[in-house]
C-alpha cells in the first residue's frame, strides 16, 4: 500500500494556501483564458508570441492549482496545545553568539519563507528550537557546521480564528 504524503501546516498557513488557490482559480485562470482568446483572434498561432506566452502562463497556473489542491487535501493542521515549550506556530526570539537577535516563526515546510522569517520545522534551526523553553542554550547542527543560540522569548500564535474560518469555508 502506498503511503500518502501529509503536509504539516499551521491553520494560518492553510488559510493562506486556500486564499492563493482561490485567487488562481477565480482571478488568474479567467485572465489567462481571456488572453488566450484574444491571442487566437490575432490569427496564425504558429508565430503568435502572445498565444505562446498565454499558453505557458496557463500551464504554470494549472500546475500550481493542482499542487495546492493536493497539498490542501493532504494537509495536517497542527494546533499544539503545549504552551510550555516551543512548537509549530511559535514565534521565537533567539540570540546568536555575537549578541545579534533574530525573530522567527516556526511553520510547516510548505509555509516556510526565509525572507519573511518563517522557518520550517524541518530546518536545522527549526529542529533545534522545538520543545525548548526561554533561556535554553541550544546547539544547532547545520550543513555549514554547528553553532549555539540562546532562546530569549517565544509566543504562540492563536489559531482559534483561523480554525473558525476553516470550518466556515468547509461548510
Task: Characterize the structure shown.
The model is unreliable at 159-171 (pLDDT under 50). With 171 residues, the protein is α/β, with parallel strands linked by helices. The protein starts with 6 loop residues before the first strand and ends with a helix. The protein contains four helices and seven strands, in the order E-H-H-E-E-E-E-H-E-E-H.
Name the descriptors.
alpha/beta, 171 residues, 7 strands, 43% helix, five-stranded mixed β-sheet
Summarize the structure.
With 171 residues, the protein is of the alpha/beta class.
Shape, principal axes of CA atoms: elongated
Poorly predicted ranges? 159-171
Number of helices: 4
Instruction: Name the average pLDDT.
Output: 84
Helix and strand succession?
Answer: EHHEEEEHEEH
Question: What order do the strands of the largest sheet run in, or round the barrel if closed?
Answer: 5-4-3-7-6
Distance between the termini: 32 Å
- Report on the biggest sheet: 5 strands, mixed
